[in-house]
Structure to design on (189 residues):
C-alpha cells in the first residue's frame, strides 16, 4: 500500500512538472526572475523604463479625470479587476482582465489582487467614470477608476503587467490607450 502511494506521488509530480514546462515554453508563466508579471507583460520595477516619463511615448498617454467623475471610496478589493465601494457598489474595472482568484483560481490571480490592493487600499478616495453600458450581466458597475493624483488605475494595471486590455463593445472609452499600453508593455518584455 505504501509503495502504491509512493508511485502515485511520483507520477503526480512528473505530470505537474510536465505541465509547468509546457506552460513555461509557451510563455504562459512570467516570473520575477524574468521580469514579467502575471499576464506575461513586464512587471513594475523600482527604476522607470527609458521614456517612462514621456507622456508622448506609445502606451504612456494617460487620460485626464473628467469633470463629471463621481467621488467614491474603496471598501474592499476582491481580485485584480473587481472591488467593492463603500456605497455598496460592486465594481468590475472596465477595459481590463486579470487572472481569477478563489474557487476558479488562475496563476498570478493573487498577485494581481495584491497589486490592486496596493494601488487602492481600503478607504482610498477614487473618481469613477462609467462608459456606455453601466452594468455587466452580474449587476456589477462597469467603471474606470482614477486616483487623487490623476492615475487611471485600469491603465496602470496593464502598464505594470498585472492585466490585459480587453475591450468589450459598446464600452470603448479609452480603448486606444489601454491597447497601446498593452502593446508597449509587451514590446518592453
Amino acid at each position: 500500500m505504501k509503495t502504491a502511494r509512493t508511485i502515485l506521488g511520483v507520477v503526480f509530480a512528473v505530470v505537474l512538472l510536465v505541465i509547468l514546462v509546457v506552460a513555461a515554453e509557451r510563455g504562459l508563466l512570467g516570473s520575477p526572475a524574468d521580469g514579467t508579471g502575471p499576464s506575461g507583460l513586464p512587471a513594475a520595477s523600482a527604476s522607470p523604463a527609458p521614456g517612462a516619463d514621456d507622456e508622448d511615448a506609445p502606451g504612456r498617454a494617460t487620460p485626464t479625470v473628467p469633470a463629471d467623475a463621481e467621488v467614491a471610496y474603496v471598501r474592499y478589493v476582491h481580485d485584480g479587476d473587481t472591488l467593492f465601494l463603500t456605497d455598496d457598489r460592486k465594481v468590475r474595472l472596465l477595459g481590463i482582465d486579470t487572472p481569477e482568484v478563489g474557487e476558479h483560481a488562475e496563476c498570478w490571480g493573487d498577485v494581481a489582487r495584491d497589486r490592486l490592493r496596493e494601488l487602492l487600499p481600503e478607504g482610498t478616495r477614487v473618481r469613477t467614470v462609467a462608459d456606455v453600458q453601466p452594468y455587466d450581466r452580474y449587476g456589477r458597475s462597469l467603471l474606470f477608476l482614477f486616483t487623487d493624483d490623476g492615475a487611471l488605475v485600469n491603465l496602470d494595471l496593464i502598464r505594470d503587467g498585472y492585466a490585459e486590455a480587453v475591450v468589450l463593445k459598446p464600452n470603448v472609452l479609452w480603448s486606444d490607450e489601454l491597447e497601446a499600453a498593452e502593446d508597449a508593455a509587451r514590446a518592453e518584455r
Remarks:
- The two ends are 49 Å apart (CA to CA).
- The beta strands are 70-79, 82-85, 90-93, 96-97, 125-135, 141-147, 164-165.
- Residues 31-188 form a domain with the OB fold (Dihydrolipoamide Acetyltransferase, E2P) fold (CATH 2.40.50.90).
